[in-house]
Design goal:
By secondary structure, the protein is of the alpha/beta class. It has one domain: 3-Layer(aba) Sandwich (Rossmann fold). The chain is 37% helix and 15% strand. It contains seven helices and seven strands, in the order βαβαβαβαββαααβ. It has a seven-stranded mixed β-sheet, with helices on both faces. β4, α4 and β5 form a beta-alpha-beta unit. The N and C termini lie far apart (49 Å).
Length: 239
Amino acid sequence: MTTVDVLAIVAHRDDAELLCAGALIAASDRGHATGVLDLAAGEAGTRGSAALRGEEAARASQVMGLTVRETLGLPDAGLVNTPETRAAVARVLRRLTPRVVIAPALRGRHPDHHVAAALVRDACFVAGIAKVAPELPPHRPLKVLHALSYREHDEKPTFVVDITDQFERKLEAIRCYASQFDGLAQAGEVYPNGEPLYDIVRHQAAHYGSLIRTRYGEPYWTSETMRVDDVATLGVATF
């Protein structure tokens, strides 16, 4: 049975590429099994079609080195956080047994995005309750991370992942979605600033990289305080 160490659960095909592809690629580079669960197929998208976006997602998955990618088939532009949808996500969590789950930011411009964030967080909890979807053994991920890329007016990141060595592959994965992004200056949580979308992605990653003194970075938030065992090994220079 296929299992993963890190699983990104997002609303739509292309969200993982925009939000957390760098961290997924970095994890894969380190030998960890990675996966993506897209909650909806993208049938309500303004551009392209769900079938075309599925082909683009398959190409992007290869670029990112994913072990597995699945689509749950919940309604696009109609995601809800209910006992039924929580159980559906919990079943996937129990099959794939991730240690770490990456979810969207808790606030988002697209209704599906902030609903997905709450749904993922709640599903990770109920996946550990034996009587929810009892046909599979319980599994509760250790860590839930919220990807904050392009959400600078929300919470300050708990940490930033150095994706300097992975950024060009992240951008390649994003570019797989030509039907969604080519010629655009905004998409999803990427707000327009007059630049082409691909340039915004690069400049945002460069901004977050500068916060940790690297070329490119991806920001994440956790509700719990991060633990440090050895202060003598801390990175990021103060001066």
